[in-house]
Amino acid sequence: MSAQQLPPQRSMAITVQIVSIVFYTFIAFLCIGLPIAVLPGYVHEQLGFSAIIAGLVIGSQYLATLLSRPMAGRMSDTIGTKRAIVYGLLGIVLSGALTLLSTLLQSYPLPSLLILILGRLLLGIAQGLIGVGTISWCMGQVGVEHTARSIGWNGIASYGAIAIGAPLGVVMVAEYGFASLGISLSVLAAGALLLIRNKPSVPVIRGERLPFWAVFARIAPFGASLTLASIGYGTLTTFITLYYLNRGWSGAAYCLTVFGVCFIVSRLMFISAISRFGGFTSAIVCIAVETVGLVMLWLAPSTAFALIGAGLAGFGLSLVYPALGVEAIKQVPSSSRGAGLSAYAVFFDLALAVAGPLMGAVALNLGYSWIFFSAALLSVTGLGLTLMLKRRAVG
């Protein structure tokens, strides 16, 4: 019986199994979201360092995630997905303790900053371990035929957790001070460790372990398409506020809200379309929709037009990651599944890393409107690459 023909009871049972595992992704990204909106201000205002240093503190976490991807995939494949997640949760506990220590040493700015950065590095490594571990665990639990659903729900958990965590962190700091952040991270991760103790894991798959760079080479064509399509997301989140200011508009935050809501709604409503129509077809349609949204942002004569564009961009981008992921994971053996997921995730990390400097240069030379034209052009390039990959697969 194919995925789209599953009876409602069976489909719901699979979803429940997936949600019970991606819960740990939710906890991890809640811990990432809590400090994300308040740490730059803490570093700049309380510790007295420049805005550049504040940005580096935030960026250190994402750099650690990117660099730890090979290790995360290898650990998931060799020691098991559950143990990889456990190590990730332990990393968050330590990160919370270091964050708390940093706030207690606020009167010593440099030691406080260095300890805070160490905590951010641990949080980044934990993000990589838990992100790969949960998806790989889901695929082992419910089957590779539900890869799209596993990746899709993992994304919902991560985006939803950050959406909740960011404003909650602001409220917590206002009410209880910066020390509450470190305590919350450690408590949340410790609670997840208690819950995961008795949860049965899937066995480690025996077989050939491909070197990470061999896996990376197999995944790269699909990852390149993902990068090209995802730069629009990095562009929107990084520059939408400056774009609005440049146009003399207010309410840039609503653009991000509309993008996020449409992103999650699309995953909830249409994730099964990937199983029904295939990863390539779903990705092609979704990249086309995202491109239309980016073009609307480029040409937007008003905030209403911009909001529609942001919504279409979120709606389209939502399924690109799982749709291309389904096809990418087919390129590696099951025994190297974790490495494949890690290699694939690197390309999304890359999109976020290059969007800032690349589109910053475009804005400096051409103006802010043209960043969305450039993102749309890259998205069209990704669409063309996906069409080529589909043609090659059919041939």
TrEMBL record:
SUPFAM superfamilies attached to this UniProt entry: MFS general substrate transporter
Transmembrane intervals: 21-43, 49-72, 84-105, 117-139, 151-170, 176-196, 216-245, 251-270, 277-299, 305-329, 341-364, 370-389
HAMAP family: MFS_YhhS
UniProt organism field: Pseudomonas shahriarae
Name of this protein: Uncharacterized MFS-type transporter M5G27_11345
Cellular-component GO terms for this entry: plasma membrane
Record's subcellular location: Cell inner membrane
Keyword tags: Cell inner membrane, Cell membrane, Membrane, Transmembrane, Transmembrane helix, Transport
UniProt superkingdom: Bacteria
